[in-house]
């Protein structure tokens, strides 16, 4: 079920910067105050760490995010996978969870080139090791 929420063009511009320009390590997306449009809440510098990213996911509020996840293969080769996150903490408001869940596809469909998708309801589900396990499978 779609919510009818639109995607602000800045979301796509920020994503292209991350994907092509490598000027951003991650992007946090949220809904505007009227809940009518998905907007960029934060773009991080390329030097940001995964801990910085986790610190920007609010404890009691839903968000979406895209993270340029770097890892090394067993043979030593470096890989990078653009990973989409749906952050919906257990203690966020039910109405917000429903709105974010029904609006996710509008954002997700507009971001071409996502390699992996992570659903997180608490910090253990988005822990570096768990995400690394998911994005490195089959590579």
Written description of the protein model:
The structure is a single chain. This protein is α/β, with parallel strands linked by helices and 139 residues long. It is 32% helix and 29% strand. It is built from 4 helices and 6 strands; from the N terminus they run βαββαββαβα. Strand 4 and strand 5 form a beta hairpin. The model has no long low-confidence stretch (mean pLDDT 92).
Question: Which short descriptors sum up this protein?
Answer:
alpha/beta, 32% helix, single chain, 139 residues, six-stranded mixed β-sheet, 4 helices
Report the strand count: 6
Order of secondary-structure elements:
EHEEHEEHEH
The proportion of residues in beta strands is 25-35%
Q: What is the mean pLDDT? A: 92
